[in-house]
Amino acid sequence: MVLNVNGLDYKSLNEKIRDVSDKCHITGCCGQRFIGAGMSGKNITIDGVPGNALGAYLNGASITVNANAQDAVGDTMNDGQIVIHGNTGDAAGYAMRGGKIYVKGNAGYRAGIHMKEYKNKVPVMIIGGITGSFLGEYQAGGIIIVLGLDKNDKKIVGNFPCTGMHGGKIFLRGDISGIKFPSNVCVTTADSSDMESVKENLSEFCSLFGFETKDILKSQFSVITPDSKNPYKQMYVAN
Amino acid sequence: MSNIEGHVRIPSGCAIAAVISKDGKSMTGEKIVDSMKPMHDRSNGLGGGFAAYGIYKDYKDFYALHMFYKDRASRKNCEQFLKERFEIVQSEIIPTRKIPQITDEPIIWRYFVSPLKSVLAALQQDEKEFVAATVMKINAEMEGTYVFSSGKNMGTFKAVGFPEDVGVFYKLDEYEGYMWTAHGRYPTNTPGWWGGAHPFTLLDYSVVHNGEISSYDANRRFIEMFGYKCTLQTDTEVITYIMDYLLRVQNLSLQQAANVIAAPFWSTIDAVSDPEEQKRLKYLRTVFSSLLITGPFSIVLGFNGGLMALNDRLKLRSMVTGQKDDKVFIASEEAAIRVMEPDAENICYPAGGQAVIVKVKDGAF
Fold first, then answer.
1. Which residue is closest to B269 within chain A, CA to CA?
2. How large is the ipTM?
3. pLDDT of B90-120, one tens digit each?
4. Which is the CATH superfamily of the domain at A2-226?
5. Residue A238 — φ and ψ, nearest 5°?
């Protein structure tokens, strides 16, 4: 069902989505916030630019955006999938605790901030391009993969990545020279078991955006994990 | 009982937008007013405003003073004061539309003035210095009287209300300028009143600001040593005076001023590979350490002939830029840019502390 939401406020927009039982194609979207918030079992496609907190608290629904998204995509999402065929703004996947976010282009500052996991609930965020500063700030769980496709001479992440990271994993593809990581994380070259996990996660991402998994996997990946040997050493007096 | 503060979520956080024609082509205020509509929820109705450049072509050599007066007596009193210092070539009410969304308006007046040569000679001040000092004097000392715009061939229009209503109230569709900036306010620590709405201006510098600066008092104490007086009960005012001080008084370039107020972290400066650049950044951060602005901000600084957009170094607020033909667009959200230009290209997200400077081609404004 096609819904033209031109000029509609976010509350009425979400009510309309709830009234649709099957697939829902939104056109004329321009800045309405909270689209799909908390929803399960819906399949939503959006033409135009959705507003902040797209898919906040998402609980199983699937959202596809055919343009750029704004800030705080998938804020605290629990389950489901958000696919962005463009760039996304700041704080994508903020406190995400399950589900998947796939971004074809770049992500802004603080992607994956406060991401977490519990038992078999492991959120995954894959960024096709590059990200701004503070990637994975305070990350407590989950997997973030940044591919840096078409990044040219730009750095794959901005300043201060992984600040306060204490759980989960970040994979960065290709050259990471010149990127300064904090002392609370370990940066290593991804081994074969790491690469299995990357490969598994990449297959869906690549089929959605038309990339070849094997081309992407030709480059070396680095993996960043918290240094959990003595996590409080940097914070308190060693004794 | 659902309306107790703290029990209801108000999803607000200020909105800014700007558009400039690099060819100096005229645009009415309609587009910039429309751009604020998708960002409606960022404001809470306690302030909206616009700065427009190139709108007073017939009076372009005169300072346009926009005034709020509490009552007729304060207007008469201020006019007497102005007459002793300026040649007033035009004095008129700023035309407004009566709409239910905007209420309790003060008396809103404007004057086109030129400082009296004899006064300038006696004070040994240049024109701009004199006008800036006069604005400070009025705002600090004259009860119920505020100058809220004082540049040449530009003007600000602000009120308590949502920005899209403020635009209708001031009839911005009837003005034509080559550059517009806009603000929707969600006051955090300070009252929502007419003088507290953005933009904040001094001479032709105007600032719209989304954020909340935590260095306000440190900045204020420093800038007040140079004759500026912070009287408008809000943090953004000090940014305007800092920019006036750095650009007009200290004669810094826009890039240098950006490196002062959003100076990189020492660790970031240490990592700069070009030694000259490193030295430059160290110098600016050291000499003007009291003008470092901390806390979240995204601002657009307007001036005659151009603008500069800037985020705090941590980028704690959002900012997006786009382009189409001769026009450059800046906003808190891409949706606002799409309203002004659905086919905007080169959508960019400036990094924290990265100044975006756009100027009108020489002489085109």
1. A159
2. 0.94
3. 999 999 999 999 999 999 999 999 999 999 9
4. Glutamate synthase, alpha subunit, C-terminal domain (2.160.20.60)
5. -75, 125
